[in-house]
Design a protein that fits this description.
Elements: H1 8-15, H2 19-25, H3 37-47, H4 51-65
Helix pairs in contact: 1-3, 3-4
């Protein structure tokens, strides 16, 4: 979301997903494998991307952070 200039509040407002759900999803301790389809789909909807594109972005970020 940060790379696309979108806040958790904007995602919550546009999709109806609770801000606390989104806050839990972006915690640094939350592994990529723990992300839900619901959250990935909501972010994708807000960014105008497909869930697959968002997942690809997340995988790339995860790989960059593990280097």
């Amino acid at each position: 979301m940060d790379q696309n200039g979108v806040t958790r509040y904007q995602v919550a407002k546009q999709t109806g997903i609770a801000n606390t759900t989104l806050a839990n999803a972006v915690k640094e301790t939350k592994p990529l494998s723990g992300q839900t389809v619901k959250v990935i789909s909501a972010v994708a909807q807000t960014l105008g991307k497909t869930p697959g594109q968002v997942l690809d972005d997340l995988i790339e970020l995860d790989e960059d952070n593990s280097k």
